What does this fold into?
Amino acid sequence: MIDLRRYPRCLTKLNAYFPDEEDPYEVSNISYKGCFIKTEKKIPIKKLVYVEIEIPDVGLVPIYGVIIHHGTPENPGLGIEIVDIDKNMRPVWNYYLKALLYIEEAKKAYKKALEESGKEEISEETKSEEGSKES
It folds into this structure.
């Protein structure tokens, strides 16, 4: 399946709060212009919603968005396209997203480093085996 998103999506586990509800919902991914909230709720497509997303060690960011999909039967939820974030909170959201993107890059670099060091370890083992065969 081709990903047609304009902005990169970051996997996450944040809390989202709807008005008049105390219990949080899990936000499983976010981008500059959207998020996905895991829930069985069926808010109508194209409906404008207000939700507050809690950024760890920072606080709640109020977001207005439009419901664009309900996920899949295996992964139900609310796909929300962000249409407005308070102008004072927009930099908070953007900085958090940038940090997540850097973390994703760090994970890729770490994985690559492990793979490369794993290859070196294997080649060292192979060298020592070859050395013992020659003796």
Summary: The radius of gyration is 22 Å.
